[in-house]
Design a protein that fits this description.
The protein is mainly α and 92 residues long. It contains 5 helices and no strands. It has a domain of 64 residues. Helix 1 crosses helix 3 and helix 2 runs antiparallel to helix 3.
Length: 92
């Protein structure tokens, strides 16, 4: 539980993002248990596969389903009374 709490309060990490995402819907305690479970699964895979840990990043959940995130944000803005038009940015 302590490891989950520590991991949840780091910045720009996958486990922190997972904690905040689950915590917003189900509450802090259930989010801590979920993060603790993820830590155990990560440890298991690290030990069995003998590979180094690579963090997925804080924006993993946004990048996983980019179209759904875009649609949800546009809908929220429209409900607040804004007219929304989207344009892709050119890659730098």
């Amino acid at each position: 539980m302590e490891a989950a709490h520590g991991a949840a309060h780091t910045k720009n990490k996958y486990l922190s993002s997972q904690y905040h995402r689950i915590g917003a819907r189900r509450g802090k305690k259930k989010a801590q248990v979920a993060v603790g479970h993820s830590i155990l699964v990560i440890a298991y895979h690290l030990l069995t596969r003998k590979q180094p840990y690579s963090d997925l990043g804080a924006n993993y959940f946004d990048e996983r389903d980019r179209q759904a995130v875009t649609k949800r944000c546009v809908t929220r803005l429209q409900r607040l009374g804004f007219k929304v038009s989207l344009e892709k940015l050119l890659a730098a």
